[in-house]
Design a protein that fits this description.
This protein is α/β, with parallel strands linked by helices. Helix content is 37%, strand content 22%. It has helices at 38-41, 43-46, 68-71, 114-127, 132-148, 162-175, 198-212, 232-244, 258-267, 274-280, 298-307, 315-320, 328-331, 354-367, 374-388, 415-421, 427-437; strands at residues 25-34, 47-58, 61-67, 80-83, 88-92, 94-100, 151-157, 178-182, 184-185, 218-224, 249-254, 288-292, 310-313, 339-342, 406-410, 443-448, 451-455. The strands form three sheets. Strands 6, 7, 8, 9, 10, 11, 12, 13 and 14 form a nine-stranded parallel β-sheet that branches. It has a four-stranded mixed β-sheet with strand order 3-2-1-4. The protein has a four-stranded antiparallel β-sheet with strand order 5-15-16-17, with no helix packed on it. Helix 14 packs across helix 15.
Length: 457
Amino acid sequence: MNARPFQNPSFGANVVVMSSPARPIALRGPVLTYTGDPFRDGLAHTMVHERDAIVVVQDGHIAQFGPAAEVTPLLPPGIEVRDYGRDALITAGFVDTHVHFPQTPMIGSHGKQLLDWLERYTFPTELKFADRAFTREVAHTFLRENLRNGITTSCVYCTVHSHSADILFEEAEALGLRLAAGKVLMDCRAPEGLTDTAQTGYDDSQALIAKWHGRGRLLYAITPRFAGTSSPAQLSAAGALWREHPDCLMQTHIAENKAEVAWIKELFPERRDYLDVYDHHGLCGKRAVFGHGIWLEDGELQRLHDTGAAIAHCPTSNFFLGSGAFDLSRALDPKRPVRVGLGTDIGGGTSFSILATLSEAYKASQLNGQALSAEHAYYLATRGSAAAMHLEDKIGSIAPGMEADLVVLDMRSTPLIDFRMNQAQSFAEQLFVQMILGDDRAVQATYVAGCLAYARS
């Protein structure tokens, strides 16, 4: 490849900073992508695997895609072809539908379940984000880790401080990332220094939406942290804000932990169930992404289906905090399927690696009596998560006209994986090896809007 990694004190030696190429470039290698939902329509009708393909990118979008034998004769003279070889796999960039960038400094904190963990670790860490310099340092690290793990789009919780969203958006814009984020709304049951009011939260969010939503590839997500830290007045204000800006996303938490579910019932006894707390205040609908949803009842899943809302499945966090094993097959029941995306949920989540997250998603499904296939899992990490954010028309798959966010995996990234791949008898088995044994070392290149944004040394 022509791009050379260089030492950058903000992002590390492996991050490549390039301007958008004036001429098209072509990536060559095996490709995996999806044209639809394999859970609904089957793999045979939705999964595309080309053993030797070419993806042409230009002006931030995919211009051509197909078997190398068919596309090669159509390439313009002198085009640069970056051939990653037969042991690579090119896919759409990974999408993370639920993550807390301010919790990066506390990832891997020992002990406690959800509510105690918030008090002991999360809130003290988020208080530090009053410092703008600290906020920027964490934003740098967070985005570097995203690129290093092939994550090209994420739906991000900031802190209550408006500048936490400003700084993250500034850094994401500099990298050309498609990213959704929002300042957290919390007006009660949180420490002094981490609370706003219904009015200030509304006003600050309005200003952030006006500044950032739809600017380049950036999107705003209206972000009440969860019902336990927002008063009815603030939930109503958030609902009003979303009605005024229906093309924004809305993100919050729901039914992550049994003690949390019981607490919300005590706080809102007049509401039918946990989801109804949000629904009553106008916070359930298309472009809503609810984190976790492990303990949702059947009626709540039906309502999510009816409204087009989504669940962010966060298995590493759910296991780390002892919250439970999300039942993917129940959420995707063909009688009323709910949109489901994948979330790392840093820092309750324990890895930025989407491959590691898929490994834990497999284990969660096993605990619920189902064996999640690798072919279905990679859909969740790409087009499925894009659909959870209602962005499947822009990202999440490889096809002409789509935004050129891509990740190139090394299918032999470690000695053990290299050895294991020699025993694999099918592409499905090769994929499964990657999602069970792979991690950040498997990502050899990440492209953002057609530009090489990360290259493994």
